[in-house]
Amino acid sequence: MALFTRNVAKRMYEFAIARQFAQTNPAQAVVARFIATQDSRTRVLSPDEIGTVLRAVYASDIRRQLKLAVHLLVLTMVRKSELTEATWPEFDLDAGMWKIPADRMKKEKEHWVFLSTQAVEMLRELRVLSGDGEFVFPSTRGSSEKPISKSTLNQAVRALSLDVQHFVLHDLRRTASTHLHEMGHSSDAIEKALAHTIKGIKGIYNRAEYAEERQKILQVWANFVDAQIEGGRKVVIGNFGQSAA
């Protein structure tokens, strides 16, 4: 709610300034990451930290599939299990769409993820790496007819020597939300992209899906993340069809 209020105030002042009713925008000085209170945690990675983490991931010796999984977790803003348990029939890469079924969302309806061009490229590589299996991230232990375990990505990230404050993978969703709010994007569209339920009277009357804006948001976010990676030393991200960096 604090983020939503700040965003509304920011846009109101922008409107007033454009019509010369005001000269300054005090809401601009309120940094979104300092008022983010989603869930019980408040950890938000800074732009520099986003770049540091992903550069370290790509420079590490973990499997190529896991590198792409961490990157996709950042880009798609989904929950960890929603990504690691994904199956290929859920995707239409030509359309840039991913439909997560209701039963996997543990909700009454499915959730549509609008894939950025970067995410589509990574998924096309994963399609080759995963072979003929059903799962995007098949297990390498025992049967490949099941996905990687819930702890695999956590263990991979913990194994890295990261020069950043402690964070958990779920913080990546909050990180995306906070930075997108700072950019001035619609709170409702961001909440829909996160598959959050809009609560209260507003949620009852607001059934909009914000498809066009969500598609824009996910592409803007992917471009922003690219810029943070490229802000440090160059790391080769594209490695089509290879199993190691």
Automatic annotation (TrEMBL):
One of its GO terms (molecular function) is DNA binding. It comes from the Bacteria. GO terms for biological process: DNA integration; DNA recombination. SUPFAM superfamilies: DNA breaking-rejoining enzymes. Residues 40-219 form the Tyr recombinase domain. The keyword Ribosomal protein does not apply. InterPro entries: DNA_brk_join_enz, Integrase-like_cat_sf, Integrase_catalytic, Phage_Integrase. Keywords: DNA integration, DNA recombination. PANTHER family: PROPHAGE INTEGRASE, PROPHAGE INTEGRASE INTS-RELATED. Belongs to the 'phage' integrase family. This is Integrase family protein.
